[in-house]
UniProtKB/TrEMBL annotation:
Ranges in a coiled coil: none
Protein's GO biological process: endoplasmic reticulum to Golgi vesicle-mediated transport
Cellular component GO terms held in the UniProt record: cytoplasm
InterPro entries on file: Longin-like_dom_sf, Sedlin
Organism: Triparma laevis f. longispina
Entry-linked Pfam families: Sedlin_N (PF04628)
Protein name: Trafficking protein particle complex subunit 2
SUPFAM superfamilies listed in its UniProt record: SNARE-like
Length: 140
């Protein structure tokens, strides 16, 4: 019996706290609360690794940080003190790279807002809608 595909979970972290989280589900699908908690646990377990990689790599694309079949975690370092993490199944690496690059553009525009603090949560519906549209384009 094969295990169900992992939920697509996206996380943006500041140096101290997560500032944005999004779960991308296909219409008509649900995930149990235990699988959601496990997905969050997997992403948060990679934060120390990302912090170490920030200081030892010049690449913004961290590729696959960890694999816990059927889940994989990819990371991205925007030109800021933040990090992007994506929990996904077995997906095309080019699509993940395009997803991160497009979200980075939207993210940097949001951070340039004078009313948005660098470590404040991103609660903008417009930002969330744009990230979800990018996810539909590249991660579906």
């Amino acid at each position: 019996m094969s295990s169900p595909p992992p939920p697509l979970l996206f996380l943006i972290t500041s140096p101290t706290d997560p500032i944005y989280t999004a779960e991308f589900l296909k219409p008509g699908t649900t995930t149990s609360s235990s699988s959601k908690q496990y997905a969050h646990y997997l992403l948060h377990s990679q934060l120390d690794i990302v912090e170490k990689l920030k200081h030892s790599t010049s690449s913004s694309q961290l590729k696959t940080l960890s694999s816990h079949p059927p889940s994989h975690i990819s990371g991205f370092l925007p030109p800021s003190p933040h990090a992007f993490l994506l929990l996904h199944g077995n997906m095309n690496g080019d699509n993940i790279t395009k997803f991160f690059n497009d979200v980075c553009e939207v993210f940097l525009k949001a951070m340039m807002n004078p009313f948005q603090g660098m470590e404040d949560g991103i609660n903008s519906k417009g930002f969330d809608d744009r990230v979800r549209a990018i996810a539909r384009r590249y991660l579906s």
